[in-house]
Write a structure and sequence with these properties.
It comes from Zymobacter palmae. This protein is of the alpha/beta class and 352 residues long. It has twelve helices and 18 strands. The protein has helices spanning 38-46, 104-107, 149-152, 155-167, 183-194, 207-215, 229-236, 251-259, 282-285, 301-309, 315-318, 328-338; strands at residues 2-8, 11-16, 26-35, 66-67, 71-79, 91-94, 97-98, 118-119, 132-136, 140-142, 176-179, 200-203, 219-221, 241-246, 261-269, 290-293, 319-324, 344-348. Bound molecules: zinc ion.
Length: 352
């Protein structure tokens, strides 16, 4: 079967690999759609970040080349030995997070914080940019009937955004600001809508992304056009938003996110940082604000799927292109890196 594998930085290839089979405790999936994540782009352009190269990954024992793709949905084709409760034809979404259940984090149920954390589609085992995948049943979530496979491929990134909102002190009716309207920023806006936000500010430089944020109902502020965005937010909200979400990974924006919140407000850090980002801590203490980091997701896939069944996280609001697995490097990875109007590109070996 065909699979997209990461060999080295700037070297990813659609290779012919041995076809996946249903191992014990696993199912064989026909992958319908898999989304390209910002993490995949980082691994391609500047990696390895999470991909094991020198040392085998502690949970999979594998090193590169590894198959990529961790945002995917598919259909069960075969059931492995010892698997109960799943049937051929079941429509499923994969929660790709791997953890050690015996670790401190695993034991207390905070599996996203495990030191040995890995991802199916980055750390070995297989991936979603592939015709078929062998997936442990612990990673499967059943899809409601009215949720499409395309939407299924959005559950993983939506879970990142939704988890950030759940971990924050956000309450229905609150005013919020989302700094950065890339895929996770837009999905954060949608999560906040579902959670009952009042005013949602989206701060974003790209015109195309501004238009998408606006379509989702956010009040858009483009730093290229508006001076002193923080002052404007503080003015309009009588002191600042209740919660600000930082989704750019750009150092000066972290300070802006903090400064845009009110007294006792909260800044949520979603971005993963490659360098230190200096902040002025007085901004926290003089207004008794707090700053909270969030990582990946924990126990939220079912809630995201239920919201999708209710009509949230519509495919057209986030997906800008669908491409065939054979074209994934040029029309997928390169398009996302070069075309500013792209948000989320889905890939399929069967449907595109
Ligand atoms: Zn991802």
């Amino acid at each position: 079967m065909k699979a997209l594998r990461w060999h080295a930085q700037k070297d990813i290839r659609v290779d012919e690999v041995e076809e996946a089979t249903a191992k014990p405790g696993c199912v064989k999936l026909k992958v319908h759609w898999c989304g390209i994540c910002g993490t995949d782009l980082h691994e391609y352009e500047g990696g390895p970040v999470f991909i094991p190269t020198d040392k085998p990954h502690p949970l999979t024992g594998e090193t590169a080349p590894v198959t990529l793709g961790h945002e995917f949905a598919g259909e069960i084709l075969e059931i492995g030995e010892g698997v109960e409760g799943w049937n051929v034809g079941d429509r499923v979404v994969v929660e790709p997070l791997m953890f050690n259940p015996k670790s401190r984090a695993g034991r207390v149920g905070l599996y996203n914080l495990c030191d040995d954390m890995g991802l199916y589609g980055l750390s070995g085992m297989g991936g979603g940019f592939s015709e078929y995948a062998c997936v442990p049943v612990d990673m499967l979530h059943r899809m409601p009937e009215n949720v499409s496979y395309e939407q299924g491929a959005l559950v993983e990134p939506a879970a990142v955004a939704f988890h950030a909102v759940r971990r924050s002190r956000f309450k229905p009716g609150d005013n919020v600001a989302v700094f950065g309207a890339g895929p996770i920023g837009l999905l954060t806006i949608e999560s906040l809508k579902a959670a009952g936000a009042n005013k949602i500010y989206a701060i974003e430089l790209s015109e195309e992304r501004c238009a998408r944020a606006e379509k989702l109902g956010a009040t858009v502020l483009n730093p290229a056009k508006v001076d002193n965005i923080v002052d404007l937010i503080v003015e309009e909200t009588d002191g600042g938003v209740d919660v600000a979400f930082e989704v750019t990974g750009v150092a000066p924006v972290l300070q802006q996110a903090i400064d845009s919140t009110k007294m006792h407000g909260e800044a949520i850090v979603i971005s993963v940082w490659t360098k230190p980002a200096p902040i002025q801590p007085n901004a926290l203490l003089l207004k008794e604000r707090s700053m909270t980091g969030v990582f990946a997701y924990c126990n939220v896939f079912p809630a995201v799927l239920n919201l999708m069944a209710q009509g949230y996280f519509k495919v057209d609001d986030f997906v800008t292109d669908k491409v065939a697995l054979n074209d994934v490097v040029e029309k997928g990875f390169h398009a996302l890196l070069n075309e500013k109007d792209q948000v989320k590109i889905l890939v399929s070996a069967h449907n595109a």
